[in-house]
Amino acid sequence: xxxxxxxxxxxxxxxxxxxxxxxxxxxxxxxxxxxxxxxxxxxxxxxxxxxxxxxxxxxxxxxxxxxxxxxxxxxxxxxxxxxxxxxxxxxxxxxxxxxxxxxxxxxxxxxxxxxxxxxxxxxxxxxxxxxxxxxxxxxxxxxxxxxxxxxxxxxxxxxxxxxxxxxxxxxxxxxxxxxxxxxxxxxxxxxxxxxxxxxxxxxxxxxxxxxxxxxxxxxxxxxxxxxxxxxxxxxxxxxxxxxxxxxxxxxxxxxxxxxxxxxxxxxxxxxxxxxxxxxxxxxxxxxxxxxxxxxxxxxxxxxxxxxxxxxxxxxxxxxxxxxxxxxxxxxxxxxxxxxxxxxxxxxxxxxxxxxxxxxxxxxxxxxxxxxxxxxxxxxxxxxxxxxxxxxxxxxxxxxxxxxxxxxxxxxxxxxxxxxxxxxxxxxxxxxxxxxxxxxxxxxxxxxx
Length: 448
Description:
- There is one protein chain.
- It is built from 13 helices and eight strands.
- It is of the alpha+beta class and about 450 residues long.
- The protein folds into two domains: about 70-155 and about 305-445, MetI-like (MetI-like fold, Orthogonal Bundle); about 180-295, no CATH class.
- The strands form two sheets. Strands 1-2-8-5-6 form a five-stranded antiparallel beta sheet, with no helix packed on it. It has a three-stranded mixed beta sheet with strand order 3-4-7, with no helix packed on it.
- Strand 5 and strand 6 (about 265-270) form a beta hairpin.
- The protein is elongated, with a radius of gyration of 37 Å.
Protein backbone atom coordinates (compact mmCIF):
# COMPACT_ATOMS: atom_id res chain seq x y z
CA UNK A 1 0.00 0.00 0.00
CA UNK A 2 1.33 3.41 -0.96
CA UNK A 3 1.58 5.91 1.84
CA UNK A 4 0.12 9.34 1.23
CA UNK A 5 1.86 12.43 2.49
CA UNK A 6 0.21 15.60 3.63
CA UNK A 7 -1.05 17.87 0.87
CA UNK A 8 1.55 20.22 -0.49
CA UNK A 9 4.36 18.64 1.48
CA UNK A 10 7.37 16.73 0.10
CA UNK A 11 9.68 14.32 1.85
CA UNK A 12 12.72 16.14 3.35
CA UNK A 13 16.33 14.98 3.11
CA UNK A 14 17.38 12.10 5.27
CA UNK A 15 19.24 13.06 8.42
CA UNK A 16 23.00 12.38 8.09
CA UNK A 17 24.29 9.41 9.96
CA UNK A 18 27.03 10.00 12.47
CA UNK A 19 30.39 8.82 11.16
CA UNK A 20 32.50 6.68 13.36
CA UNK A 21 36.25 6.90 13.55
CA UNK A 22 38.13 4.32 11.50
CA UNK A 23 39.64 3.01 14.71
CA UNK A 24 36.19 2.66 16.29
CA UNK A 25 36.96 5.08 19.12
CA UNK A 26 38.05 8.67 19.26
CA UNK A 27 41.04 10.24 20.95
CA UNK A 28 42.05 7.31 23.12
CA UNK A 29 43.24 5.07 20.31
CA UNK A 30 44.83 8.02 18.48
CA UNK A 31 46.85 8.85 21.58
CA UNK A 32 47.89 5.20 21.94
CA UNK A 33 49.13 5.17 18.37
CA UNK A 34 51.05 8.42 18.89
CA UNK A 35 52.45 7.42 22.28
CA UNK A 36 55.57 5.56 21.01
CA UNK A 37 56.49 8.50 18.78
CA UNK A 38 55.90 10.94 21.63
CA UNK A 39 58.06 8.88 23.98
CA UNK A 40 60.91 8.78 21.46
CA UNK A 41 60.52 12.48 20.77
CA UNK A 42 60.65 13.26 24.46
CA UNK A 43 63.62 10.98 25.14
CA UNK A 44 65.70 12.01 22.14
CA UNK A 45 64.76 15.68 21.70
CA UNK A 46 62.86 17.28 24.58
CA UNK A 47 64.84 15.75 27.46
CA UNK A 48 68.33 16.54 25.99
CA UNK A 49 67.29 20.13 25.26
CA UNK A 50 65.87 20.60 28.76
CA UNK A 51 68.84 18.97 30.46
CA UNK A 52 71.35 21.01 28.44
CA UNK A 53 69.50 24.20 29.31
CA UNK A 54 69.57 23.39 33.04
CA UNK A 55 73.19 22.12 32.94
CA UNK A 56 74.36 25.33 31.27
CA UNK A 57 73.68 27.24 34.49
CA UNK A 58 75.90 25.00 36.65
CA UNK A 59 79.64 24.87 37.14
CA UNK A 60 82.08 22.17 36.01
CA UNK A 61 81.17 19.75 38.79
CA UNK A 62 77.45 20.28 38.31
CA UNK A 63 76.91 20.89 42.04
CA UNK A 64 77.02 24.69 42.24
CA UNK A 65 74.81 27.17 40.41
CA UNK A 66 77.01 29.32 38.13
CA UNK A 67 74.40 31.68 36.74
CA UNK A 68 75.36 33.19 33.41
CA UNK A 69 79.09 32.57 33.84
CA UNK A 70 79.07 29.83 31.20
CA UNK A 71 77.29 32.11 28.74
CA UNK A 72 79.75 34.88 29.50
CA UNK A 73 82.55 32.51 28.50
CA UNK A 74 81.03 32.30 25.00
CA UNK A 75 82.23 35.84 24.34
CA UNK A 76 85.44 35.89 26.39
CA UNK A 77 87.04 32.52 25.62
CA UNK A 78 89.46 32.82 22.65
CA UNK A 79 88.64 29.36 21.31
CA UNK A 80 84.89 30.00 21.33
CA UNK A 81 85.32 33.43 19.75
CA UNK A 82 87.38 31.88 16.94
CA UNK A 83 84.72 29.21 16.49
CA UNK A 84 82.00 31.87 16.35
CA UNK A 85 83.95 33.85 13.74
CA UNK A 86 84.44 30.73 11.62
CA UNK A 87 80.75 29.85 11.92
CA UNK A 88 79.89 33.26 10.50
CA UNK A 89 82.24 32.57 7.57
CA UNK A 90 80.60 29.19 7.08
CA UNK A 91 77.05 30.58 7.16
CA UNK A 92 77.88 33.35 4.70
CA UNK A 93 79.95 31.48 2.11
CA UNK A 94 79.14 27.74 2.19
CA UNK A 95 75.36 27.98 1.50
CA UNK A 96 75.88 30.78 -1.03
CA UNK A 97 78.49 28.91 -3.07
CA UNK A 98 76.66 25.57 -2.90
CA UNK A 99 73.35 27.17 -3.93
CA UNK A 100 75.00 29.12 -6.77
CA UNK A 101 76.71 26.00 -8.10
CA UNK A 102 73.48 24.02 -7.79
CA UNK A 103 71.66 26.70 -9.78
CA UNK A 104 74.33 26.74 -12.50
CA UNK A 105 74.38 22.94 -12.77
CA UNK A 106 70.58 22.72 -12.87
CA UNK A 107 70.23 25.35 -15.60
CA UNK A 108 73.13 24.20 -17.77
CA UNK A 109 72.17 20.52 -17.70
CA UNK A 110 68.52 21.16 -18.52
CA UNK A 111 69.02 21.08 -22.27
CA UNK A 112 71.90 18.65 -22.74
CA UNK A 113 71.33 15.01 -23.55
CA UNK A 114 73.68 13.71 -20.88
CA UNK A 115 72.26 16.01 -18.20
CA UNK A 116 70.88 13.13 -16.12
CA UNK A 117 74.26 11.39 -16.02
CA UNK A 118 75.96 14.65 -15.02
CA UNK A 119 73.44 15.23 -12.24
CA UNK A 120 74.03 11.69 -10.99
CA UNK A 121 77.77 12.30 -10.78
CA UNK A 122 77.32 15.64 -9.00
CA UNK A 123 74.82 14.18 -6.55
CA UNK A 124 76.93 11.08 -5.85
CA UNK A 125 78.96 12.65 -2.97
CA UNK A 126 75.71 12.87 -0.99
CA UNK A 127 75.77 9.08 -0.81
CA UNK A 128 78.88 9.03 1.39
CA UNK A 129 79.15 10.09 5.00
CA UNK A 130 80.83 13.23 6.30
CA UNK A 131 83.46 11.01 7.92
CA UNK A 132 84.37 9.39 4.60
CA UNK A 133 84.39 12.77 2.84
CA UNK A 134 86.71 14.12 5.53
CA UNK A 135 89.17 11.27 5.02
CA UNK A 136 89.06 11.77 1.25
CA UNK A 137 89.79 15.48 1.47
CA UNK A 138 92.47 15.02 4.13
CA UNK A 139 94.34 13.15 1.39
CA UNK A 140 93.33 15.61 -1.33
CA UNK A 141 94.84 18.49 0.65
CA UNK A 142 98.06 16.66 1.58
CA UNK A 143 101.09 18.95 1.38
CA UNK A 144 103.15 16.44 -0.64
CA UNK A 145 102.32 16.86 -4.36
CA UNK A 146 102.97 13.15 -4.84
CA UNK A 147 100.03 12.39 -2.50
CA UNK A 148 97.71 15.40 -2.47
CA UNK A 149 95.68 15.96 -5.64
CA UNK A 150 95.17 19.66 -4.94
CA UNK A 151 98.89 20.38 -4.71
CA UNK A 152 99.70 18.05 -7.60
CA UNK A 153 97.45 20.15 -9.85
CA UNK A 154 98.67 23.43 -8.37
CA UNK A 155 102.35 22.51 -8.73
CA UNK A 156 101.74 21.28 -12.28
CA UNK A 157 100.20 24.61 -13.27
CA UNK A 158 102.94 26.57 -11.48
CA UNK A 159 105.78 24.61 -13.08
CA UNK A 160 104.23 25.16 -16.51
CA UNK A 161 104.94 28.88 -16.20
CA UNK A 162 107.87 28.87 -13.75
CA UNK A 163 110.12 25.85 -13.97
CA UNK A 164 111.67 24.71 -10.71
CA UNK A 165 115.39 24.18 -10.26
CA UNK A 166 116.85 20.70 -10.57
CA UNK A 167 119.76 21.53 -8.21
CA UNK A 168 118.24 22.88 -4.97
CA UNK A 169 120.94 21.35 -2.76
CA UNK A 170 124.00 22.00 -4.95
CA UNK A 171 126.90 23.95 -3.41
CA UNK A 172 130.67 24.30 -3.82
CA UNK A 173 132.89 21.65 -2.29
CA UNK A 174 136.21 22.11 -0.47
CA UNK A 175 138.95 24.01 -2.35
CA UNK A 176 136.41 24.99 -4.99
CA UNK A 177 137.08 28.03 -7.22
CA UNK A 178 133.55 29.18 -6.31
CA UNK A 179 132.48 31.11 -3.22
CA UNK A 180 129.09 32.32 -1.91
CA UNK A 181 127.95 35.64 -3.37
CA UNK A 182 124.90 36.24 -1.17
CA UNK A 183 121.27 35.51 -1.83
CA UNK A 184 122.02 31.86 -2.66
CA UNK A 185 124.28 32.58 -5.67
CA UNK A 186 127.92 31.51 -6.14
CA UNK A 187 130.69 33.42 -7.94
CA UNK A 188 134.27 32.64 -9.02
CA UNK A 189 136.98 33.88 -6.70
CA UNK A 190 138.99 35.41 -9.54
CA UNK A 191 138.04 37.08 -12.84
CA UNK A 192 138.30 34.93 -15.97
CA UNK A 193 140.15 35.67 -19.22
CA UNK A 194 139.34 34.94 -22.84
CA UNK A 195 140.92 31.70 -24.07
CA UNK A 196 140.85 30.16 -20.59
CA UNK A 197 139.01 27.01 -19.58
CA UNK A 198 137.08 27.41 -16.31
CA UNK A 199 135.94 24.67 -13.97
CA UNK A 200 132.81 25.21 -11.82
CA UNK A 201 132.50 22.08 -9.68
CA UNK A 202 129.56 21.60 -7.32
CA UNK A 203 128.40 18.89 -4.93
CA UNK A 204 125.23 18.15 -3.01
CA UNK A 205 122.99 16.51 -5.61
CA UNK A 206 122.64 12.74 -5.50
CA UNK A 207 123.41 11.10 -8.87
CA UNK A 208 119.94 9.54 -9.02
CA UNK A 209 118.35 13.00 -8.62
CA UNK A 210 120.20 14.59 -11.52
CA UNK A 211 118.04 15.81 -14.46
CA UNK A 212 117.13 13.37 -17.19
CA UNK A 213 119.14 15.41 -19.70
CA UNK A 214 122.36 15.14 -17.70
CA UNK A 215 125.23 13.37 -19.50
CA UNK A 216 128.72 12.39 -18.49
CA UNK A 217 130.71 15.54 -17.82
CA UNK A 218 133.28 16.59 -20.43
CA UNK A 219 136.19 18.99 -19.92
CA UNK A 220 135.87 22.33 -21.72
CA UNK A 221 137.98 23.00 -24.81
CA UNK A 222 139.81 26.30 -25.10
CA UNK A 223 138.62 28.67 -27.84
CA UNK A 224 140.23 31.90 -28.96
CA UNK A 225 138.34 34.98 -27.86
CA UNK A 226 135.90 32.95 -25.76
CA UNK A 227 135.64 31.66 -22.24
CA UNK A 228 134.79 27.97 -22.01
CA UNK A 229 134.41 25.60 -19.12
CA UNK A 230 132.41 22.90 -17.39
CA UNK A 231 130.02 22.85 -14.45
CA UNK A 232 129.40 19.39 -13.08
CA UNK A 233 128.64 17.21 -10.08
CA UNK A 234 132.13 16.70 -8.60
CA UNK A 235 131.28 13.47 -6.88
CA UNK A 236 131.90 9.81 -7.71
CA UNK A 237 130.41 6.93 -5.75
CA UNK A 238 132.95 4.99 -3.74
CA UNK A 239 135.41 6.23 -1.12
CA UNK A 240 138.57 7.79 -2.55
CA UNK A 241 137.33 7.52 -6.12
CA UNK A 242 137.67 10.51 -8.42
CA UNK A 243 139.81 13.63 -8.52
CA UNK A 244 138.81 16.71 -6.56
CA UNK A 245 137.93 19.67 -8.82
CA UNK A 246 138.67 17.50 -11.83
CA UNK A 247 136.24 16.10 -14.41
CA UNK A 248 136.06 12.30 -14.05
CA UNK A 249 134.45 9.86 -16.46
CA UNK A 250 131.74 8.74 -14.00
CA UNK A 251 130.62 12.26 -13.08
CA UNK A 252 127.63 14.05 -14.63
CA UNK A 253 127.32 17.57 -16.02
CA UNK A 254 124.80 20.07 -14.67
CA UNK A 255 122.53 20.24 -17.71
CA UNK A 256 120.66 23.54 -17.91
CA UNK A 257 122.77 25.35 -15.29
CA UNK A 258 122.66 29.10 -15.93
CA UNK A 259 126.02 30.92 -15.93
CA UNK A 260 126.40 34.72 -15.93
CA UNK A 261 129.46 36.94 -16.52
CA UNK A 262 129.39 39.90 -14.12
CA UNK A 263 131.44 43.11 -14.36
CA UNK A 264 131.01 45.90 -11.84
CA UNK A 265 127.74 44.39 -10.67
CA UNK A 266 126.24 44.16 -14.19
CA UNK A 267 125.62 41.03 -16.25
CA UNK A 268 127.54 41.38 -19.53
CA UNK A 269 126.91 37.87 -20.89
CA UNK A 270 125.07 34.71 -19.93
CA UNK A 271 124.67 31.16 -21.16
CA UNK A 272 123.26 27.76 -20.21
CA UNK A 273 125.27 24.60 -19.75
CA UNK A 274 124.81 21.73 -22.18
CA UNK A 275 123.94 18.19 -21.14
CA UNK A 276 127.56 17.36 -20.40
CA UNK A 277 127.99 20.58 -18.36
CA UNK A 278 130.10 22.44 -20.93
CA UNK A 279 129.45 26.11 -21.67
CA UNK A 280 130.89 28.96 -23.73
CA UNK A 281 130.80 32.74 -23.19
CA UNK A 282 131.70 35.47 -25.73
CA UNK A 283 134.65 37.86 -25.52
CA UNK A 284 132.49 40.36 -23.64
CA UNK A 285 132.99 38.20 -20.56
CA UNK A 286 136.75 38.81 -20.55
CA UNK A 287 137.80 40.09 -17.13
CA UNK A 288 134.44 39.29 -15.54
CA UNK A 289 133.61 36.99 -12.69
CA UNK A 290 131.38 34.02 -13.47
CA UNK A 291 128.28 33.74 -11.33
CA UNK A 292 125.86 30.87 -10.84
CA UNK A 293 122.64 32.79 -9.99
CA UNK A 294 120.39 31.77 -7.11
CA UNK A 295 117.66 30.64 -9.52
CA UNK A 296 119.76 27.53 -10.15
CA UNK A 297 119.45 26.48 -6.52
CA UNK A 298 116.00 27.54 -5.35
CA UNK A 299 113.90 24.92 -3.65
CA UNK A 300 111.28 23.25 -5.86
CA UNK A 301 107.76 24.64 -5.54
CA UNK A 302 105.66 22.38 -3.30
CA UNK A 303 102.32 24.11 -3.68
CA UNK A 304 100.11 25.66 -1.03
CA UNK A 305 99.69 24.64 2.57
CA UNK A 306 95.96 23.98 2.19
CA UNK A 307 95.60 22.85 5.78
CA UNK A 308 97.69 25.65 7.26
CA UNK A 309 96.21 28.34 9.52
CA UNK A 310 95.30 30.74 6.71
CA UNK A 311 93.68 28.33 4.23
CA UNK A 312 92.23 25.55 6.37
CA UNK A 313 88.73 27.04 6.70
CA UNK A 314 88.28 27.81 2.96
CA UNK A 315 89.65 24.34 2.16
CA UNK A 316 87.12 22.62 4.42
CA UNK A 317 84.31 24.78 3.02
CA UNK A 318 85.38 23.56 -0.43
CA UNK A 319 84.91 19.95 0.66
CA UNK A 320 81.48 20.81 2.05
CA UNK A 321 80.45 22.43 -1.24
CA UNK A 322 81.65 19.31 -3.08
CA UNK A 323 79.22 17.26 -1.01
CA UNK A 324 76.17 19.54 -0.93
CA UNK A 325 76.17 21.19 -4.36
CA UNK A 326 74.40 18.06 -5.66
CA UNK A 327 71.67 18.43 -3.05
CA UNK A 328 71.10 22.05 -4.09
CA UNK A 329 71.14 21.08 -7.77
CA UNK A 330 68.43 18.42 -7.36
CA UNK A 331 66.06 20.74 -5.48
CA UNK A 332 66.61 23.61 -7.88
CA UNK A 333 66.17 21.32 -10.88
CA UNK A 334 62.82 20.20 -9.44
CA UNK A 335 61.79 23.85 -9.09
CA UNK A 336 63.03 24.59 -12.59
CA UNK A 337 60.80 21.85 -13.99
CA UNK A 338 57.79 23.76 -12.69
CA UNK A 339 58.73 27.07 -14.30
CA UNK A 340 56.25 27.92 -17.10
CA UNK A 341 58.08 27.55 -20.42
CA UNK A 342 55.78 30.12 -22.01
CA UNK A 343 57.40 32.88 -19.97
CA UNK A 344 60.89 31.86 -21.06
CA UNK A 345 59.90 31.60 -24.71
CA UNK A 346 58.08 34.94 -24.57
CA UNK A 347 61.24 36.59 -23.23
CA UNK A 348 63.31 35.07 -26.04
CA UNK A 349 60.77 36.15 -28.65
CA UNK A 350 60.98 39.70 -27.28
CA UNK A 351 64.72 39.65 -28.02
CA UNK A 352 66.18 38.82 -24.62
CA UNK A 353 69.53 37.06 -24.59
CA UNK A 354 70.02 33.81 -22.67
CA UNK A 355 71.81 35.73 -19.91
CA UNK A 356 68.91 38.17 -19.63
CA UNK A 357 66.39 35.32 -19.58
CA UNK A 358 68.38 33.65 -16.83
CA UNK A 359 68.86 36.80 -14.75
CA UNK A 360 65.48 38.48 -15.19
CA UNK A 361 63.10 35.53 -15.61
CA UNK A 362 64.55 32.22 -14.40
CA UNK A 363 66.18 33.43 -11.17
CA UNK A 364 63.16 35.50 -9.99
CA UNK A 365 60.83 32.58 -10.63
CA UNK A 366 63.18 30.27 -8.72
CA UNK A 367 63.61 32.70 -5.81
CA UNK A 368 61.36 30.70 -3.40
CA UNK A 369 63.26 27.48 -4.15
CA UNK A 370 66.63 29.19 -3.87
CA UNK A 371 65.62 30.64 -0.50
CA UNK A 372 64.56 27.23 0.83
CA UNK A 373 67.81 25.62 -0.35
CA UNK A 374 69.99 28.40 1.10
CA UNK A 375 68.20 28.40 4.45
CA UNK A 376 68.34 24.60 4.69
CA UNK A 377 72.09 24.70 4.07
CA UNK A 378 72.48 27.46 6.67
CA UNK A 379 70.89 25.20 9.27
CA UNK A 380 73.19 22.41 8.16
CA UNK A 381 76.42 24.42 8.37
CA UNK A 382 75.61 25.68 11.85
CA UNK A 383 75.94 22.07 12.98
CA UNK A 384 79.00 21.13 10.89
CA UNK A 385 81.45 19.05 12.91
CA UNK A 386 82.69 15.95 11.08
CA UNK A 387 84.54 17.66 8.25
CA UNK A 388 86.38 20.09 10.52
CA UNK A 389 87.31 17.38 13.02
CA UNK A 390 88.66 15.00 10.36
CA UNK A 391 90.27 17.34 7.80
CA UNK A 392 91.95 19.94 10.02
CA UNK A 393 95.25 18.60 11.47
CA UNK A 394 96.05 19.16 15.11
CA UNK A 395 98.38 22.06 14.30
CA UNK A 396 95.60 24.13 12.67
CA UNK A 397 92.46 22.76 14.30
CA UNK A 398 92.28 25.81 16.55
CA UNK A 399 92.21 28.03 13.46
CA UNK A 400 89.49 25.91 11.79
CA UNK A 401 87.41 25.61 14.96
CA UNK A 402 83.60 25.88 14.77
CA UNK A 403 80.95 25.90 17.50
CA UNK A 404 79.98 22.24 17.13
CA UNK A 405 83.62 21.17 17.37
CA UNK A 406 84.24 23.50 20.31
CA UNK A 407 81.21 21.97 22.04
CA UNK A 408 82.83 18.54 21.66
CA UNK A 409 86.21 19.77 22.83
CA UNK A 410 84.83 21.57 25.88
CA UNK A 411 82.59 18.67 26.84
CA UNK A 412 85.05 15.82 26.41
CA UNK A 413 88.63 17.03 25.95
CA UNK A 414 88.52 19.90 28.50
CA UNK A 415 85.89 18.37 30.80
CA UNK A 416 83.80 21.56 30.98
CA UNK A 417 80.23 20.30 30.54
CA UNK A 418 78.71 23.58 31.73
CA UNK A 419 80.32 25.59 28.94
CA UNK A 420 79.59 22.80 26.45
CA UNK A 421 75.91 22.92 27.41
CA UNK A 422 75.91 26.72 27.02
CA UNK A 423 77.35 26.32 23.50
CA UNK A 424 74.63 23.76 22.71
CA UNK A 425 71.89 26.15 23.87
CA UNK A 426 73.50 28.99 21.92
CA UNK A 427 73.54 26.84 18.78
CA UNK A 428 69.88 26.02 19.32
CA UNK A 429 69.06 29.70 19.60
CA UNK A 430 70.91 30.34 16.34
CA UNK A 431 69.12 27.55 14.50
CA UNK A 432 65.55 28.28 15.70
CA UNK A 433 65.06 31.57 13.76
CA UNK A 434 66.40 30.02 10.56
CA UNK A 435 64.17 26.95 11.02
CA UNK A 436 61.16 29.16 11.71
CA UNK A 437 61.81 31.13 8.52
CA UNK A 438 62.14 27.92 6.52
CA UNK A 439 58.94 26.37 7.92
CA UNK A 440 57.00 29.57 7.35
CA UNK A 441 58.14 29.75 3.73
CA UNK A 442 57.28 26.10 3.14
CA UNK A 443 53.77 26.61 4.53
CA UNK A 444 53.34 29.63 2.32
CA UNK A 445 54.30 27.56 -0.70
CA UNK A 446 51.81 24.82 0.27
CA UNK A 447 48.96 27.36 0.45
CA UNK A 448 49.71 28.49 -3.08
